[in-house]
Every structure is written in C-alpha cells, then in structure tokens.
C-alpha cells in the first residue's frame, strides 16, 4: 500500500458509543449512506450481512456489536465506512462519521495497558491519538476484522502455502 | 493472415503451434508407454513433431531447442529407418518426455518474455548415449544401415528440412517457380508469405532458397534466381493458382505437376525437366547449376538430421499400426485471449442484471399501464440475451482431455519413481467443463491422483500377497449428471483403512472420547482424511504423506462450489469423486422469499411446487417433519427454521412446498412464497464471511437487492 503524502497522518474518525475512533485514511475506500442489508444466516452476530455496492457484493459489520456494546437503531445518520484491508473489502456500520483529522506522530501514544482492562474493547485499539484536548482511539483494522479468527486463518494460509510449496 | 506478417505474430504462432505439437507428442507417448515399442505411426508422428519444432525453432533462432529437437529427431530417425529390436522402451519414453519438458519449459520462458536460456547440453549428451546404446545393441542393424547411408549420400538435402511425404494416393506433387519483379523490396518476405499460405494445404513442402527468414541476402537471390517450391498437396493445380497468382510482386508463376519420385529427389532432380521445358528461363538454368553445386556439397558425409527419409513402400504392411479412429473433420478455430473472454462474460453478466432491472422496474407496476408492446419487445430481448449467454457459455466449455492427459503423465512419473507398475485408464475425458473450473480442479486432481498412486496402490509384493494382479490400475473418469460434473479418481488398491484413520483421529482428539468407534459411519470416517494435518502414511515420501493435500483439495473445491466424496472398499480400492458445478457464472434459478430474505435455488433440482394442507403433514415423535403428497412421503425442511430467520410463515397452508430432487433424494423445502424464475449471475459470498451450510453464493436481483443462492446438496443433507 503506497502511502501518499496527502494521506499521511490523516485519520477518518467516527463515533461509536461515547468514544471517538480513528482509522488510517489509507484503509478507507469510501463512506456511503446506510442501505438495506441482506442478512446471512448463521454468521457471527456482528456480521450484519451483505450489501450491494454498485454491483459488488460486500459484507458489512456493526462496529458497536463488534465492540460488544449495546446495539443501536440504524437511522438516516448511520453510515457505512467501506474499508479495504489486504484486499478484503468490508463495510463498517458506524453511528456517526465525525471528521478527517490529522494526527502527528508525536501525538500518538501507545494504548494504555493497565492491568487487565476491558480486553473486549482494547484489543482493537493499538494507540491513542491526541487532537487538541480530545482523544481518538486508533483502530487496528487487522484486529477489527479478524481477531480471534486470525489464528485460524493464518494457520490455514500457512498450510496452503506449504501444500503448494510441496509441488 | 499472411498479410499481417511480423515477428510478434510469428512468435505467437510459433509458441502456439509448438505447444500444440508438444501436447500431441505427450499424448502419443503416454498412450503407448505401456507397449513394448512405439508403433510405426507414432514413430512417424514423433519424428514429424520434432522435425517441425526443430525447423521453426531454427527460424526463430532458439538454438537450444533446435539442438535438442534435432537430437531426438536423430533417435527417431534411427528407430524409423532401422527398426532396431530390443529398444529399452521405458527409457525411450523418459527421454521423449524429458525433451518435451525441456522444450515446453523453454517455450514458457519465451512466452513470459524471458531468454530461453535453458542448457541443452546434458540432455543432448543423454540422448547421444541412448542413441549409441540402441545402435550398439542392434549389431545386425548397423550392417543393414550401410546401403541406407549411401541412399542418404545421394540425397540432395543439404541444409534442407525435408520430410518424406505421407503415402497418400490422392496427393499431387508440384514444382512451383516464382519470378519476382526485381524492384520488389524484401522479396524474401514476399516469398515467405507464399510459403505461409501454402502451409495450409501442404502435406509436404520445401523451398529454395531455404533461409528466407534468417538471411536478408536471400531477397536478392530470389530476385535473381526465382523462388522454387516443391509441394505435396491434395489440392489441384487450379486451387494452387488461386493461392499463388501474379500480382504487384510476382511476375510469373509456373506450376508443374511431377511424380513422387521426382519430388523426393529435391531440387536437383529438376534439371532434366528443365531441358524439355521450352519456357525455361535463364534463371531456371542457373537454378539447375545451383542445384548441382548443392549436389557436390553432398559428397560430404551428411550431417545427422539432414536426411531424406523414404516412405515405406505402399505394399509393405504397417503391422504395428493400431487402428486409430479417423480424426474428425477439422473445424476452423481462432484463439482468443482468455482475459477478453472473461471480460465478455462479465459484461454479459452485467447485461443480465440490468435486463432484469429494466424488466422488473417498479415504474412498470403502476396500475393502468398498457404494456403489450413493451412486453413483446421485452420477450424478444430476453430471448436474445439468453442466446447470448448460451453462446458465451459454450465458448467457455473445454473438454477435460488435456487435464486428464496431464494426470496420465503424473501417474507415469510417480509410479516409476515408486517402482509400481500401474495402468492408467481414462473414461469420458471429452466431457466439457467451464474453463474457469478446469483451472481450479487441476491441482486437486493432481493431489488425488498422486495419492492414489502413492497410498492407494500397494507395492507389488503386497498386491501379489493379496491375490491381485501385480499391475495396479488407476482410473480417471468424468461424467455429467444433474448439472454437475463428476470426476472420479479410482484405484484398485487396498482401500482406506478405517481402523487406522479412527486411531489417528482419536489421537488427534477429533472423536468424541465417550463414543465408541462404531458410531462413526464410513463416510464420516473417510471425511477425516480431508482435515489439515491428517495423514496415516507413516513415512513421508516425495509425493505425499505430509498431511497437506487433502485439505487443500477440499478448500480448492469449495471455492468453486464443489465437494469431495470418498468411497472405499477394503481390499478393493477406493474412489474419490469430485463433484463440481458445470458452470459458475449464470444459472437459471427460482427466486423464493422466506421472511424478508430472498433465496434462489437452481431450476434443475426443482421437481415441483405444491401447496399443502395441514392434514398432509406428518410429525414423528422425534420432531422430524414430513409431508405426504400423492401417496409419497417427503421429509420437510423449513428454511426459516433452519436458518433461524425472523418473520417467516409457520402455517404450511400459507406457504409453499418446493420439492427438490438432489442426487436421488427428494426433500421438501418450505418457503413463504415464490417470486419467480430468473437468470441469475452467481457471485461468491465474500470470503470474509465464513462458509454457511447450504449456501453456495449470492446474487443481485433485478431491484438491486441481494439474494442468497442455496446449494441443493447442502440443503438436503
């Protein structure tokens, strides 16, 4: 992924619960208004289903449910952030888009790890960005999308590579 | 064709032709690998293939390919001329395959724009040794060779690539002289155009000067001496004249029919004729002189490869030639870039979607509209787009022959390395499958075939001990059934060892410790071998035993909506079935609604739709529900229940039963209502979402909403 100068240090921020979160802008493809979702039976609760993005079918996940927070009612302010991480295109349903902010590297602090804090939320946040007095929790898209499944997926991938290497 | 003469085209044509030749070659070789020797037809075929490859590679200046092809041609020349006995056949087969591998490796490099830098010297050395060996072993033949060598010396073929004509009664032989206008530039290119055009009809062809492509000075020689062609062809003189006619470049065309004997003499046999020919020009006389010079050169010992090969006398029976089916009449083909086909496919997919957007547009549903004309036009359009789809589909269908042929090669290689004697049989290899699917099944098939040879078939000793014939057998079969292709890999080996698999599964903690082995059905047990890291082979061999493979097979198959089924009989062997959809792209489907969710199921498996009443329902005490329809009892699957949807109908009298017939089983699917029949473009469910039982993909409906595609096999399980 080429980091363009214009994208450097820029983050798309959105509100979920009481916190503001930030995502590196290079992962963000676009932001679309909420649209009808087709549910997929028997999938994880945070995977809300599929949407039709101009002929391309992509899965969407609800960030609040992902964070194990209370679900919220979707309304006309609800947005979907379409991100592309390692060629996986996924829509994130968020309550409210805030703004695009620039956070210099010196204002980014590693996420606090005091004791065994609320793991369910903290594991998605890799750092905290200061913008003036406000604080944005910076999300790691890898952990956001994959987390506990990651180990499994990695395992499968390595095996596939091995399998191919053997030939 | 001939007009578009440039090197890019030539390179493309070279690669295309030669890879086809190599494929042919492999086919022939593998076909007869188990015989004692190659039959005469095959020897001729291989010889010809090598000869052509040598010739064209020389023109393209790929030296190593030329050398290798030349060497193998030598070997086959010897086989063909001297009929040596006691040729180590398997060794010969290996050599031919090695050469084919080398050349196709080089061709791949060329295709990828790399240098063809492979080193041929080792291969040539091996072939030399081999040739020396078979010559040495056939002492009798070396004496016989002497008179033949003399024949060769008389031959006029210095620097000429000359193949003996096929003995074909209806062939005509021609000598053709072309005179070009002296002011023509690049006369050699013009000459090549003619050669190129004649190749289409020629059974045999040679021309002089020979080096028209590589040597620019040949242009001058053509203008000075004329361009001479010897042609063997089924065509009549008139037909030739339509191909070669005087024009802005060619001043004069002379075509003479000659006898086969004259033809075989090459260009220096021309002399005697010329004297009778009153039209003979100065150039022709010069040509004769040139031919004489050539003849003088011939007194040198002929270099290997510069042979004239005599055809067998017609009376001599070809005792070894098998009865081969006549090749089907040649159709006209063009080769198309596959990416263009894919693009066309995508576009047609989009067209189908937008067609349904138009035809099911909500604006049309306004009451009171007169739509007669619209509907007529719409029906016409639907018909055309359906035809269009069928055409593109049929264009993408290719027979499995090539894929199967590759497996033949794998069986051969692996069985030889393992020291097993294995017969390979193909059934139904002409079954046609979508090109995309073929790409996906090649690897899984390879794994399965290797497994069969390595694990499936026992060693010779074990086989004999079990009272089987020493020779193992692997059968690859293909058939289409209910919209799916079944590809079977069967071996007559020991079969899967249920006890061993169960033991391993227990060790890996895959079984429920509280349950005894006996609760697991054979089918369940065999499925364990498709899990990652599961191999019962104690020793890791070069080919298998590491426990990766079967899981890759399954995951590759899942990508294309296929499944793997394993059957096995202890002591008699096992059979693995790959079941894959015929095509991926567009299917005919029934759209149904359950709750607020749309589902699609392919039309092929739907037997009928039935409205049922409550009294037809049968509830057995264990909660299994069935329905009695016209005296037959069908198990019922309520889709809403099964997928835990919300808002679906529970009263059977309000909904609709869809009877499906899947692989011989019949089940009833209970849905809320039917929406309609539609052509749908199948898209995969994004890989981010884990695989859901009973779903094989998703699609976009006319109104832009998404429907989930049901996998009939999964739903009826």
In helices, the fraction of residues of chain A equals 10-25%
Query: What are the low-pLDDT stretches of chain B, counting only 5+ consecutive residues below 50?
Result: 1-6, 140-167, 269-280, 296-328
Count the domains of chain A: 1
Number of domains of chain B: 5
N- to C-terminal distance of chain A: 30 Å
Number of strands of chain A: 11
Reported by name, the CATH topology of the largest domain in chain B is Heat Shock Protein 90
β-strand amount of chain B:
15-25%
Rg of chain A, rounded, reads 17 Å
CATH class value of the largest domain in chain B: Alpha Beta
Principal-axes geometry of chain A comes out as globular
Q: Look at the structure and name the CATH superfamily of the largest domain in chain B.
A: Histidine kinase-like ATPase, C-terminal domain
Distance between the termini of chain B: 56 Å
Tell me the strand order in the biggest sheet of chain A. 8-1-2-11-10-9
**How many distinct beta strands of chain B?**
22
> How would you classify the helix and strand content of chain B by structural class?
alpha+beta
Level-1 CATH class name of chain A: Mainly Beta
Shape of chain B: flat
What does this protein structure show overall?
The complex is a heterodimer of chains A (167) and B (717). With 167 residues, chain A is α+β, with helices and mostly antiparallel strands. Chain A has one domain (10-158): CheA-289, Domain 4 (OB fold (Dihydrolipoamide Acetyltransferase, E2P), Beta Barrel). Chain A has 4 helices and 11 strands, in the order E-E-E-E-E-H-E-E-E-E-H-E-E-H-H. Chain A has helices at residues 63-66, 119-122, 141-145, 148-165; strands spanning 10-16, 19-24, 28-33, 47-53, 56-62, 79-85, 88-94, 96-102, 108-110, 125-131, 134-139. Chain A has a 6-stranded mixed sheet with strand order 8-1-2-11-10-9. Chain A has a 5-stranded mixed sheet with strand order 3-6-7-5-4. In chain A, a hairpin with a 2-residue loop joins strand 6 (79-85) and strand 7 (88-94). Mean pLDDT of chain A is 77; it is low at 149-167. Chain B is flat, with a radius of gyration of 33 Å. Residues 1-6, 140-167, 269-280 and 296-328 of chain B have low confidence and may be disordered. Chain B folds into 5 domains: 7-145, Four Helix Bundle (Hemerythrin (Met), subunit A); 172-306, 2-Layer Sandwich (Alpha-Beta Plaits), CATH 3.30.70.1110; 338-397, Histidine kinase  CheA-like, homodimeric domain (Helix Hairpins), CATH 1.10.287.560; 400-581, 2-Layer Sandwich (Heat Shock Protein 90); 586-716, Beta Barrel (OB fold (Dihydrolipoamide Acetyltransferase, E2P)), CATH 2.40.50.180. Chain B is of the alpha+beta class and 717 residues long. Chain B starts with 6 loop residues before the first helix and ends with a helix.
């Amino acid at each position: 992924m080429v980091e363009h100068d214009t994208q450097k240090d820029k983050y798309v921020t959105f509100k979920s619960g009481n916190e503001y979160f930030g995502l590196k802008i290079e992962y963000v493809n676009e932001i679309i208004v909420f649209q009808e979702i087709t549910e997929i039976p028997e999938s994880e609760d945070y995977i809300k289903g599929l949407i039709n993005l101009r002929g391309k079918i992509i899965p969407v996940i609800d960030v609040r449910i992902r964070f194990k927070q209370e679900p919220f009612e979707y309304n006309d302010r609800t947005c979907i952030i379409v991100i592309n991480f390692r060629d996986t295109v996924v829509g994130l349903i968020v309550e409210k888009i805030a703004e695009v902010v620039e956070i210099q590297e010196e204002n980014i602090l590693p996420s606090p790890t005091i004791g065994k804090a609320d793991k369910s939320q903290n594991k998605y946040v890799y750092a905290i960005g200061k913008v003036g007095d406000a604080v944005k929790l910076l999300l790691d898209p890898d952990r956001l999308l994959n987390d506990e499944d990651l180990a499994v997926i990695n395992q499968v991938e390595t095996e596939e590579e091995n399998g191919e290497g053997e030939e | 064709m001939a007009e578009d003469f440039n090197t890019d085209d030539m390179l493309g044509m070279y690669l295309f032709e030669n890879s086809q030749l190599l494929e042919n070659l492999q086919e022939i070789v593998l076909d007869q690998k188990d015989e004692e020797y190659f039959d005469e037809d095959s020897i001729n075929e291989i010889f010809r293939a090598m000869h052509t490859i040598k010739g064209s590679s020389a023109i393209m200046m790929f030296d190593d390919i030329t050398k290798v092809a030349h060497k193998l041609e030598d070997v086959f020349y010897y086989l063909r001329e001297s009929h040596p006995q006691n040729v180590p056949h398997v060794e010969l087969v290996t050599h031919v395959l090695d050469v084919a591998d080398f050349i196709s490796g080089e061709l791949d490099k060329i295709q990828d724009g790399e240098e063809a830098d492979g080193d041929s010297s080792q291969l040539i050395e091996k072939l030399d040794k081999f040739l020396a060996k078979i010559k040495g072993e056939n002492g009798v033949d070396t004496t016989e060779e002497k008179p033949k060598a003399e024949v060769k010396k008389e031959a006029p073929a210095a620097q000429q690539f000359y193949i003996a004509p096929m003995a074909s009664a209806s062939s005509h032989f021609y000598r053709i002289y072309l005179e070009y206008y002296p002011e023509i530039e690049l006369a050699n290119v013009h000459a090549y155009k003619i050669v190129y055009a004649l190749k289409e009809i020629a059974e045999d062809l040679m021309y002089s000067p020979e080096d028209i492509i590589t040597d620019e000075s040949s242009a001058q020689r053509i203008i000075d001496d004329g361009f001479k062609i010897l042609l063997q062809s089924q065509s009549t003189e008139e037909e030739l004249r339509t191909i070669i006619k005087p024009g802005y470049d060619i001043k004069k065309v002379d075509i003479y029919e000659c006898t086969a004997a004259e033809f075989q003499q090459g260009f220096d046999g021309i002399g005697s004729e010329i004297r009778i020919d009153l039209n003979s020009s100065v150039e022709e006389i010069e040509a004769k002189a040139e031919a004489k010079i050539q003849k003088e050169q011939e007194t040198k010992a002929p270099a290997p490869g510069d042979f004239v090969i005599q055809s067998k006398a017609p009376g001599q029976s070809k005792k070894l030639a098998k009865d081969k089916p006549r090749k089907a009449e040649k159709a006209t083909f063009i080769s198309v870039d596959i990416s263009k086909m894919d693009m066309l496919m995508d576009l047609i997919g989009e067209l189908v979607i937008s067609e349904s957007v138009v035809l099911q547009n909500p604006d049309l549903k306004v009451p009171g509209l007169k739509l007669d004309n619209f509907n007529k036009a719409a029906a016409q359009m639907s018909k055309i787009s359906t035809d269009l789809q069928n055409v593109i589909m049929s264009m993408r269908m290719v027979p499995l022959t090539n894929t199967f042929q590759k497996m033949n090669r794998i069986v051969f290689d692996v069985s030889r390395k393992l020291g097993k004697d294995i017969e390979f049989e193909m059934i139904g290899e002409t079954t046609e499958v979508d090109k995309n699917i073929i790409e996906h099944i090649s690897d899984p098939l390879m794994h399965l075939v290797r497994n069969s040879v390595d694990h499936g078939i026992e060693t010779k000793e074990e086989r004999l001990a079990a009272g089987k014939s020493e020779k193992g057998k692997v059968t690859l079969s293909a058939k289409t059934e209910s919209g799916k292709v079944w590809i079977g890999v069967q071996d007559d080996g020991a079969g899967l060892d249920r006890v061993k698999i169960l033991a391993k599964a227990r060790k890996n903690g895959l079984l429920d410790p509280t349950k005894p082995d006996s609760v697991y059905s054979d089918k369940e047990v065999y499925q364990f071998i498709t899990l990652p890291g599961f191999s019962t082979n104690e020793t890791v061999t070069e080919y298998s035993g590491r426990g990766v493979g079967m899981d890759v097979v399954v995951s590759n198959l899942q990508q294309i909506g296929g499944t793997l089924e394993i059957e096995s009989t202890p002591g008699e062997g096992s059979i693995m079935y790959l079941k894959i959809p015929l095509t991926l792209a567009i299917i005919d489907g029934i759209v149904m609604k359950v709750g607020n969710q749309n589902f699609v199921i392919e039309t092929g498996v739907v037997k009928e739709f039935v409205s049922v009443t409550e009294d037809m329902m049968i509830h057995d005490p264990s909660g299994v529900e069935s329905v009695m329809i016209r005296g037959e009892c069908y198990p019922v699957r309520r889709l809403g229940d099964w997928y835990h949807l919300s808002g679906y109908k529970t009263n059977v009298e309000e909904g609709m039963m869809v009877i499906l017939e899947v692989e011989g089983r019949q089940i009833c699917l209970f849905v809320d209502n039917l929406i309609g029949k539609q052509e749908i473009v199948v898209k995969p469910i994004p890989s981010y979402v884990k695989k859901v039982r009973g779903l094989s993909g998703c699609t976009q409906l006319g109104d832009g909403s998404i429907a989930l595609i049901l996998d009939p096999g999964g739903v009826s399980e």
